[in-house]
Design goal:
This is DUF1801 domain-containing protein. Keywords: Coiled coil. It comes from Amycolatopsis thermalba. The chain is α+β, with helices and mostly antiparallel strands. It has a single domain, classed as Aspartate Aminotransferase, domain 1. The protein contains 4 helices and 5 strands. The protein has a 5-stranded antiparallel sheet with strand order 1-2-3-4-5, with helices on one face. The model has no long low-confidence stretch (mean pLDDT 91).
């Protein structure tokens, strides 16, 4: 069976290929121009949007945890981690909030990952149940966060 050519199209011309390459380079430059501050602001917006979408009980806790982490460890960068608010140093998670609703748990959790400096002998806690945030709980969270980044 023979094919008959229905057009003289041989692909893109050299000029068209050059223009496409130029546009690809422009897009790469635009992506690189996005500053670290822009990326950090976008990550924080993502975290705040995730918190805003939580059921009220979890949202109230997550908002306070977010404020306490920002106040006591401003060097930590907010980011989403497994769909939950987390706070990282140099890209590595230090602490995180887990919604009770998302994990079908009795309580929300404030957790600390291996980057957190909470070491206390041969055994120490790395997560804490949260049911409400009282002034005493705020003080404890603030102290834990400060210790985690020390």
């Amino acid at each position: 069976m023979s094919r008959t050519k229905t057009s003289d199209y041989d692909g893109f011309s050299a000029e068209e290929r050059a223009v496409m390459k130029e546009r690809a380079q422009e897009l790469k430059k635009e992506a690189r121009r996005k500053s670290a501050a822009d990326k950090a602001a976008e990550a924080e917006r993502d975290v705040l949007a995730k918190i805003a979408d939580m059921p009220e009980a979890d949202r109230v806790l997550a908002e306070r945890v977010h404020a306490l982490v920002k106040a006591n460890a401003p060097m930590l960068a907010p980011k989403l981690w497994y769909g939950m608010p987390a706070y990282a140093r140099d890209g590595r998670i230090v602490c995180f909030f887990q919604s009770a609703e998302k994990f079908k748990a009795r309580y929300a959790t404030l957790g600390f990952d291996t980057e957190a400096n909470l070491d206390d002998g041969p055994m120490w806690a790395t997560s804490f149940a949260l049911t409400e945030i009282t002034p005493e709980v705020e003080e404890r969270i603030a102290a834990l966060v400060r210790q985690a980044v020390s």
